[in-house]
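User: Is it possible to get a 3D structure for a protein together with its bound compound? The compound here is NAP. I've pasted both below.
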Amino acid sequence: MQNQTIVIIGANSEIAKALTLEIISNSKNDDNTQLIVISRNVEFYRQEHFHQLPSACVNSIAVTAYSEDEISHAVKKIDLIARFEITKVFVCHGVLHDQQCQPEKRLEDFSPEAFTRILTANTITPMLWLKHLTPVLSGSHDCNIVVFTARVGSISDNKLGGWYSYRASKAAMNMLLTSAAVELARRAKNIKLISFHPGTTDSPLSKPFQKNVPEGKLFTSEFVAKKLLMIVENTAIDGKASYLDWQGKNIPW
Ligand SMILES: NC(=O)c1ccc[n+]([C@@H]2O[C@H](COP(=O)([O-])OP(=O)(O)OC[C@H]3O[C@@H](n4cnc5c(N)ncnc54)[C@H](OP(=O)(O)O)[C@@H]3O)[C@@H](O)[C@H]2O)c1
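Assistant: Yes, that's possible. Here is the predicted structure of the complex:
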């Protein structure tokens, strides 16, 4: 296996934690994979077994609220502590509901405050990572940046409506990624952008909406993590953004 550093952002996400464990288990007995995880809550990564690993070494960076200053500072730290070329970045931010808001069922539920919060977490924050990471990642080595979006961000696939803020935040992320891919094809040909839909996965984000998920369609985060790592390994660096689901199938933008 090649020497590599992998960065996981929003690392307290259920899927991010499974990704970490999968990467560690894949790099068993090797000392050639370094993981850098960034989160507002890095407790999971402070567990003792992470410090006793003979294999992947895990460095955590704690942030408080993902302000642009904090993101810029964290990227400088990543650049400083990365032992190898950064080959993969996973940006896992996603908010569908919080204590003050639930996804909208009808137009009357739309709230500018909730929309702003969702857009900040799901779109502006990932975009700031992309902005600050690009100069650090540009070079001659292949690098995949995976931004977690959702199928509901597809404009052409929208048959159900509703969930205005979440849908719009993910659709906006897709537009930012397709635009960024055009720019990166000129200035950072080594970077591939992937907009990723994990499928409905058991996590705090999906918890309130799992009742109607058909049998066998609620994935474990471990299953999604395995699928995603395979997808990333098999995706060509082609100067375009790809919008992929957990099977590696293209989703229409
Ligand atoms: N689970 C599903 O069924 C499903 C389906 C489709 C798409 N997705 C997408 O998959 C991704 C991962 O979701 P998950 O299921 O693993 O969710 P999760 O366990 O609830 O994780 C939430 C993630 O969002 C971040 N986050 C929460 N509030 C935030 C805020 N105010 N500002 C910035 N970041 C914030 C967390 O970062 P910290 O580490 O800092 O806490 C964490 O990375 C999300 O983008 C989600 O939209 C999930």
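The chain has a mean pLDDT of 95. Residues 4-245 form a domain with the Rossmann fold fold (CATH 3.40.50.720).
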